[in-house]
Amino acid sequence: MNFELYIITDENIGREKTHAEIAQLAIAGGADVIQLRDKSCSSRDLIRIGRTVREITRRSSTLFIINDRLDVAVACGADGVHLGQGDMRTDVARQIAPQGFIIGVSVSTVDEAVRAEREGADYVALSPTFSTESKPDAGPGHGPYMLREIRQNVSVPVIAIGGIHRGNVREVIAAGAAGVAVISAVVGAEDITAAARDLKNLIRQCKARRPP
Description:
TIM Barrel, 8-stranded parallel beta barrel
């Protein structure tokens, strides 16, 4: 599984583009993962949107993840679900989810990351890595130091999420991040495809320079 460039859709930030349009443009720029996130949608609408995005991601073999909602993820035929600390426990989700289903978990401490891996998470995301305006209630950023600590204590991929942009990608990749999850840095750009391509190239450059 490749998590280098992980794009989270947001229609409010996306300059009036739909989730499907955002996904298509980001994939054209090299996105490896698309996460559908919409807290305002009804279950019915989220499933409808999710099935459209699923078709777009399937054509390009891009991983498709649903935020929070395991039921919606299964109904859409998504590749996985991303859970927060207040959502369903990872081990419970693992019992319900289909075989081969990806489960990611947002964490803010080493203990949360270790527990998530023990309960069956396929990846963890340090949230927020930096302070972010995309999710004002997320609290202060934990920084690359915490990312490095988590990376040293788990064997699953660690994703940096929250406040990520061109100016700090190098820090988080150097700290051991498998990839970065972004909203504003790509979805908020005037040209989503160009922004995604630029960020993907930067991630790969930083990885190439990272000591083995």
